[in-house]
Design the sequence.
């Protein structure tokens, strides 16, 4: 319960800061963000996820699931917004290339995705190996395909879809987890 309250407090703080500041990614640090006050120029750096409670080198599934949830949210929003440089340190080159190909395909057609992640229904570890973990995400999303004028071509802004994805994470040589594969089951009832 204490962790939930801390997370809620951080989220409220981020919303307040977002109203009065800009949020920037910290170069080569996918686990941190920088908040810069628009009024005073004050800079505050924050970790995106809590540091694991387990001893270094020990596996803690709850911590991993929380970090996977943060990465899913960050990557999905960045891809939808076409901000691919923000995800480069979070994914392997093949995953980056797949996301870049999809984004450039929309851009060539003067289209873009309007993505809203409403909630996570579940986030579960499906398989764990020494340096690789498969995670199943079931989320509620609103996905719209829009043209350059902002007209909706596909989707309904009032319809929330339940979407299933499986992402595979692998541990890098410097002990960071990156996404090495994605699989979408798409929307379902």
Sequence:
């Amino acid at each position: 319960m204490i962790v939930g309250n801390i997370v809620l407090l951080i989220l409220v703080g981020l919303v307040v800061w977002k109203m009065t500041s800009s949020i920037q990614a910290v170069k080569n640090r996918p686990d941190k963000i920088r908040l810069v006050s628009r009024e005073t120029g004050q800079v505050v750096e924050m970790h995106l996820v809590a540091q694991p409670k387990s001893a270094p080198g020990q596996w803690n599934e709850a911590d991993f699931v929380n970090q996977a949830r943060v990465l899913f949210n960050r990557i999905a929003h960045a891809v939808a917004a076409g901000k691919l440089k923000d995800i480069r340190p979070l994914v392997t080159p093949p995953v980056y290339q797949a996301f870049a190909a999809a984004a450039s395909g929309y851009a060539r057609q003067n289209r873009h995705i309007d993505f809203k992640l409403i909630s996570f229904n579940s986030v579960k570890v499906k398989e764990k190996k020494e340096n690789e973990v498969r995670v199943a995400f079931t989320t509620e999303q609103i996905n719209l395909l829009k043209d350059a004028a902002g007209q909706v071509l596909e989707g309904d802004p009032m319809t929330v879809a339940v979407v299933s994805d499986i992402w595979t994470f692998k541990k890098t040589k410097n002990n960071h987890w990156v996404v090495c594969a994605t699989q979408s089951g798409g929307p379902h009832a």
